[in-house]
């Protein structure tokens, strides 16, 4: 009798153990899911990573996880489900649970429109991920490449096509090449609404920024069908490896976009790392899959239908110059205004004092393009056409054009930083010395996301300005040796100006930001 009781007791213990193991296995994805890294702290100092073990690996749940725990469990179950009806049911549950949150979304925020979308099924992402993303990040030295200009001598490394454009045979053949940090991700969504073609993004996302960035991108990939037109290339400092252990993202609970600007990035905790603006420009441009490429900042929104109208113009345009690019006028509007779709809408905003040409308040000479007054009074039509052909010379050597060009154009100088200002001055000078022509387009433009930039205190930039000026000296001297000098390009004048400024103290350097390198002639 005693043996029988003992036998039953051990059977009970065995069954309880098996049930416990089963519960642990069944719930492991929910327990371990990392869906928000915003509260993670960065190291306070810039120190090289010597091994992957040094990368922070937080396993923190988001506030939404606590509020929507049951929905999160359902979403995770979908990952292993082949039942389409079950997936649809779960999507409906998630959609209902977000109705209250939708009412609080800032409608003026980039990507706010996505709140009305529903995430695709678990296996139906609109993106083509590489390197085992978004569930992991696996790569080797063969794909961990160097930038276009300085290659292996560069301080930066790239993973090309972390997200790769696909199904693009019917997409208009002009690429919008742009760059960003993790806290500007949501501007991709606004570009997709206004740009019909491909988008090539180079994202500088060192250390944990890579996970913060890819979490947002993963949501967009499940929510915005047009993400198939986007290629994303990840860039980092060679001593700040991407945060592999934090890449573990699944189908989002909803399509409510978080405010990217509220995300803390590496530079918020370590300002010794510069933003390599010309590295990311080169990466984005050279990765373009089309002949024509527009290199632009991500906050500059194109007028509607720009690509199709531009390509229509090109078919009938008798191009006679080998070195020719197509410049787009730039504008900005008040924070309360809406980005205009057409020149007609733009002119109405200008007449109502709701718009100005780009940087009119902060750097008047930078974007006041040739014949701007005539462009504004020339009327408007639905067709893009050549307005005037000019050179960036003489009185307009300070003009900072944004244009549609090709990969045959000079690369941007990767030695210059965004913090040091005038990061495109060398690029424009080299194009001038190559005798480029700029055809300014009519009925086409770029408009900055609402909010007119005002002149502000830039004293914090002084050390970076001085460093950029050191680089200017060497680069300009080499350019003047490489090309036949064209006096109207003002290369020699800029060089003399830079050399003089290098001998001044910081207080003397702290003239107007618009006067540091380029001044009235």
UniProtKB/TrEMBL annotation:
Sorted UniProt keywords: Membrane, Transmembrane, Transmembrane helix
Transmembrane domains' residue ranges: 12-31
Disordered: annotated span: 48-71
Signal peptide start and end residues: none
Compositionally skewed regions (Low complexity) per UniProt: 56-71
Listed name of the protein: N-acetyllactosaminide beta-1,3-N-acetylglucosaminyltransferase
Organism, scientific name: Hypothenemus hampei (Coffee berry borer)
């Amino acid at each position: 009798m005693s043996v029988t009781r003992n036998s039953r007791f051990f059977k009970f213990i065995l069954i309880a153990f098996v049930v416990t193991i089963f519960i642990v296995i069944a719930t492991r994805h929910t327990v371990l899911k990392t869906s928000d890294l915003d509260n993670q702290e960065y190291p306070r100092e810039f120190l090289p990573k010597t091994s992957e073990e040094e990368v922070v690996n937080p396993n923190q749940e988001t506030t939404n996880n606590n509020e929507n725990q049951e929905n999160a469990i359902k979403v995770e179950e979908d990952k292993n489900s082949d039942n389409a009806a079950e997936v649809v049911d779960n999507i409906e549950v998630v959609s209902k649970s977000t109705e209250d949150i939708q009412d609080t979304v800032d409608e003026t925020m980039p990507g706010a429109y996505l709140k009305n979308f529903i995430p695709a099924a678990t296996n139906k992402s609109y993106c083509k991920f590489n390197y085992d993303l978004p569930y992991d990040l696996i790569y080797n030295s063969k794909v961990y490449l160097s930038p276009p200009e300085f290659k292996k001598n560069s301080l930066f490394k790239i993973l090309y096509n972390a997200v790769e454009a696909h199904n693009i045979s019917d997409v208009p053949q002009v690429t919008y090449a742009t760059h960003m940090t993790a806290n500007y991700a949501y501007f991709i969504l606004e570009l997709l609404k206004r740009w019909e073609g491909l988008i090539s993004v180079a994202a500088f996302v060192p250390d944990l920024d890579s996970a913060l960035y890819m979490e947002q991108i993963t949501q967009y990939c499940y929510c915005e069908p047009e993400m198939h037109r986007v290629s994303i290339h990840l860039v980092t400092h060679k001593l700040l490896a991407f945060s592999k252990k934090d890449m573990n993202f699944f189908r989002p609970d909803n399509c409510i976009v978080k405010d990217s600007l509220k995300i803390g990035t590496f530079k918020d905790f370590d300002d010794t790392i510069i933003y390599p603006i010309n590295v990311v420009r080169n990466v984005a441009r050279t990765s373009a899959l089309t002949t024509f490429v527009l290199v632009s900042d991500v906050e500059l929104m194109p007028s509607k239908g720009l690509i199709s109208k531009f390509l229509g113009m090109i078919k009938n345009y008798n191009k006679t110059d080998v070195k020719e690019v197509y410049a787009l006028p730039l504008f900005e509007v008040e924070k309360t205004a809406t980005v205009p779709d057409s020149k007609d809408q733009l002119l109405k905003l200008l007449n109502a004092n709701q718009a100005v040409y780009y940087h009119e308040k902060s750097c008047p000479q930078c974007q006041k393009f040739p014949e701007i007054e005539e462009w504004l009074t020339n009327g408007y039509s639905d067709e893009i056409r050549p307005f005037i052909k000019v050179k960036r010379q003489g009185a307009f050597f300070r003009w900072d054009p944004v244009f549609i060009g090709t990969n045959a154009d000079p690369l941007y100088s990767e030695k210059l930083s965004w913090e040091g200002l005038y990061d495109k001055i060398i690029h424009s000078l080299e194009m001038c010395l190559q005798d480029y022509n700029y055809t300014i387009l009519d009925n086409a433009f770029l408009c900055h996301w609402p909010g007119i930039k005002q002149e502000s205190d830039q004293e914090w930039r002084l050390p970076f300005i001085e460093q950029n000026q050191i680089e200017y000296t060497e680069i300009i001297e080499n350019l003047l040796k490489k090309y036949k000098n064209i006096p109207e390009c003002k290369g020699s004048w800029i060089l003399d100006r830079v050399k003089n400024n290098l001998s001044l103290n910081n207080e003397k350097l702290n003239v107007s930001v618009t006067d540091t390198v380029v001044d009235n002639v």
